[in-house]
Design brief:
single chain; Aminopeptidase; 12 strands; alpha+beta; about 325 residues; binds coenzyme A
Length: about 325
Amino acid sequence: MSAHAVHLPTPHHPANLRPFDIRRDLLAVADLVELCFAPTLDSDGYQYIRQMRQAARAGRWLPAQPADLDAPLMGMVWVEGGVLVGNLSLIPQHLGGKTRYLIANVAVHPRYQRRGIARQLTLAALEDVRARGRAETWLQVDQNNQVAVDLYRGLGFVERMRRTSWRGWPQANAAAGGGPRVRKRQPQDWSRQQAWLDNIYPRDLRWQLPLKMNALRPGWQAQLQRLFGTPRSLHWSALDGDGLRATLSWQSSTLEADRLWLAADPLDAQPPLAQLLAAASRQLRRDRKLALNYPAGLAHEAMQAAGFSALRTLIWMRYPWEVLLDPAHTR
Ligand SMILES: CC(C)(COP(=O)(O)OP(=O)(O)OC[C@H]1O[C@@H](n2cnc3c(N)ncnc32)[C@H](O)[C@@H]1OP(=O)(O)O)[C@@H](O)C(=O)NCCC(=O)NCCS
């Protein structure tokens, strides 16, 4: 199949659109991202922006591809009268021999919005990925951000999942309620926990989450890894009689919140998640916030009973290269 078969609207490449140059643009991108995302930035978001500014101070000494910099390295910018007013970051992830791209930091200065700039930036990014071999291309958009949802749908992105980010604090007096018993996870629980985690945090999601399955595995290898700086973890299991119903793992983090990973049988309509969260709550440090990512629309009651609130729900969208490459669609 030739590359020409892809039905991607041709981006116009006016003089205003050019590739992001880390040495020249990073500070202006940090300012623009802060301005455009101000209403939704949390402390991790501000940390990300601080990191961009710190890196930008290295100026022309900054390597074009800094190895350990958690900042945008690729993307497109839009410049009007010498001022950077639009940005799109293209973040590659190389995992398991596969490259995926995340489109992020799409921002247009409020005075320049509604002129088609974000659309041109996104088309140019897609053109770039197409030229590099059409690796999977994803983005995440807040389900309440209708403007951006319309923009991406209009360009052909397809919704693949919705995930809610929950935040909460451990509560000393968390009530377990009745029902299943909660105990420390046992090694024999792992095979089912792993299968459930695979289902609730599928591979299409895991490349963007700090979930390292091997670090949650019981046994000496995981303990050894933890000694060498990987996050610390604790685990609980909920049981009905002898039957395992659900598991919960806690993982320390250097970010604003420690992580929880909940897992239950997808066929179980009412897994005892509230009991697990309450048991964990009673054992965890009160001064560390907790973050939990879960499929949208599930477990609301359990989360709220455990004192968690929904921070945001993101729609995960993917660009359908495979559909566009299907001859039936390219005639
Ligand atoms: C979302 C954002 C990047 C759009 O930038 P923009 O340059 O104004 O977008 P465009 O002019 O290219 O518009 C493309 C499409 O987006 C939608 N759109 C853009 N602005 C809109 C508005 N005010 N109301 C409704 N739809 C709008 C429309 O579908 C539009 O297509 P149309 O003009 O043919 O109807 C910009 O509003 C922004 O920076 N918002 C804050 C940061 C943000 O939310 N980024 C997205 C994160 S995923």
